[in-house]
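Many introductory courses stop at the sequence. We go one step further.
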Amino acid sequence: MGKLLYALIAGIVGAGIVHIATLLLIPTVSDIDTWTRLSNLGTLNAFHRVEHVGETAISIRALDPTFEVAACRFDLNDGPVQVISDLSAPFWSLSIYNRRGENIFSINDRTANEPNLDVIIATPRQVVELRKSLAPEVDTAIIAENDIDEGFVVLRAFVEDASLMPTVLRFLESASCDLY
């Protein structure tokens, strides 16, 4: 009876370890991550609207139907990236993720200096060069300094009611995610 109980406990513990290891390895070995899904939407350094249905919607939108979402992939090896829009929405939020999908920076219109979107994403070395340039845009923009090579930006805008949909869509369409 003791040997049977020992074997049963060892089997349960072993199965638990294998189960946990498998769950932790899925993001590492999976080829179909958010970066890959976004690459199917379009090119680097351009916002692409994320629809309400589909695999990309599930990984990006967090299944909230009250937000319209656009996403942009970027590569900082080509230089800093500026995310900017001349228009505004009743509420917007911007999140920056590394290539693995880990959130590394977030901001919204309530915490930004200005109601309009103006964020520069750069590596620490690029930030030093930006500050040396003394460009006036650098003084007013929010600098998101991150030690990453590639990543993506998710821009969300809240649609309080149907009458605001045109304003929100114009805001998302006016947003750019281009090399600085």
